[in-house]
Design goal:
globular, four-stranded mixed sheet, 295 residues, UDP-N-acetylmuramoyl-L-alanine:D-glutamate ligase, alpha/beta
């Protein structure tokens, strides 16, 4: 269901991770040893990135996620709190901290993910959802089985290609809208789902696959990317914000695409300094040429 009014509380169900980013000299895989030019440890994860973007845009957010019951889990919780993300629904589980190692070398990126306890997230109940303008589910896939958004609450589901086989068409059909990427779209297009699907395509922008078979392309914003990790998550969080204002699907996608580009330029959504007025200015400046309708 489409959100009613302009509520500003959001629920995010997804993973939160410790991201360790390293910049290497030369070809990272040419030898068993590589020299690290710089490194950074920070907050990451599909859910946390989307939630951080919602906070930057002015929303209040409760994150449902799992972290390890050790010092690293406490560190993640502190980072979330410092960002203004609600942590009362975090689940602390004995096991490995979810973390991702991001290797940047010669203009290429590899992301090595250790999911740890990430898939043992807490799940929202009906009282958690009643006040939400939108619910964004990026992980775990188990969340969809028992989740039913109340009337007036938009349910947005992020689907990566490796998740498709674990999700039933019935579960996916619960969504108001799906977000995937160019790798995930081929797996979804054969399911004949009667919900719109947003396909993020990096520098090529976003393709909207309508539930009636229409296709609309929304061009990317011409912002030079520094590092793309988290840009898709920032897009998802921003889309939930703008679509709940409410506004048209194309207007929400266009603005969210700008936010995703800004996240790539900042090398991470939680590193952005986001001015909503700048997003409006950029969208207004290019919206006449940003949309091309195709059949």
């Amino acid at each position: 269901m489409r959100a009613e009014g302009t509520r500003s509380h959001f629920v995010v169900v997804g993973d939160v991770m410790m991201d360790y980013t390293v910049w290497l000299s030369g070809d990272a895989w040419a030898d068993e040893k590589s020299t690290v030019l710089a490194s950074r440890r920070g907050l990451g994860g599909t859910g946390a990135n989307a939630a951080a973007t919602l906070r930057l845009l002015g929303g209040s957010v409760e994150l449902f996620a799992a972290v390890s019951d050790d010092a690293w889990g406490a560190w993640i919780a502190d980072q979330l709190s410092a960002t203004g993300i609600g942590t009362s629904r975090l689940r602390y589980v004995h096991g490995a901290v979810p973390h991702a190692t991001i290797v940047l070398s010669n203009g290429e990126r590899r992301v090595l993910v250790d999911r740890g306890v990430a898939d043992q997230s807490s799940l929202p109940g009906r009282t958690d959802l009643d006040a939400a303008a939108a619910v964004y589910v990026s992980n775990p896939v188990a969340a969809l089985g028992g989740l039913q958004a109340p009337d007036g609450t938009t349910l947005v589901v992020g689907v990566e290609h490796q998740m498709v086989d674990a999700l039933s068409p019935g579960d996916l059909a619960k969504a108001s809208l799906l977000i995937t990427n160019a790798a995930g779209w081929p797996a979804l297009k054969h399911l004949d789902l009667a919900v719109p699907i947003l396909e993020t395509r990096g520098a090529d922008g976003v393709r909207i696959h309508g539930d009636s078979g229409t296709v609309v392309d929304v061009a990317a914003d011409p912002i030079e990317a520094a590092e793309a990790t988290g840009a898709g998550d920032a897009f998802a969080g921003a889309f939930c914000w703008y679509y709940s204002r409410p506004m048209s699907l194309i207007d929400a996608v266009g603005r969210a695409g700008i936010v995703g580009s800004l996240a790539a330029a900042a090398a991470g959504s939680h590193l952005m300094t986001l001015d909503p007025a700048e997003v409006e200015r950029r969208w207004s400046a290019r919206q006449s040429s940003a949309v091309q309708r195709r059949h």
